[in-house]
Amino acid sequence: MSDPQDPATADADLLVVRPGKWTLVVIVQLREGTKRFNELRRNMGGVPQKSLSVTLRELERDGFVTRKAYATIPPRVEYDLTDLGRELLRLADDFKRFAQRNRHAVEQARRLFDAADSRASL
Predict the structure, then answer these.
(1) By residue range, what is the domain housing residue 58?
(2) Helix/strand/coil for 63
(3) Alpha helix (H) residue ranges in the chain
């Protein structure tokens, strides 16, 4: 059993939650409550069906969303945030505020890097 006070264990625990490209987008989409698969897909624009399926499965496995399937024709499947998912939503909101607050600084850093990089490759 791992010791949560051990710094090596704490660092390894950071790797347990490994958000994919669509993870935070799905979490934010579920902010307002239960959504069906196709509703999520429609709202998310360009997400490929397979990517959304994989993302939802990973989120369900990690305990961030619940999945409820109804025995209807056609089958109906709904997704909702768990308490853990709502906590991740707060983190996503914090990240968005960070990105908005620091957008210009990041753009400036990219311009400086790209300019230096283009000179170095001459």
Answers:
(1) 7-95
(2) coil
(3) 7-13, 23-29, 37-43, 49-61, 83-120
User: Which CATH number is 19's domain given?
Assistant: 1.10.10.10
Token digits for 27?
A: 């979490």
Q: Give me the number of domains the chain comprises.
A: 1
Q: What six digits make up the tokens of 112?
A: 């400086």
Three-state DSSP at 69 gives: strand
* For residues 64-79, average pLDDT: 94
Of 107, 102, 99, 77, the closest CA to residue 28 belongs to 99
Q: Is residue 12 pLDDT above 90, yes or no?
A: no
Cα–Cα distance, 40 to 29 (Å, whole number):
7
Strand, coil or helix: what is 81? strand
Provide the whole-model pTM. Answer: 0.75
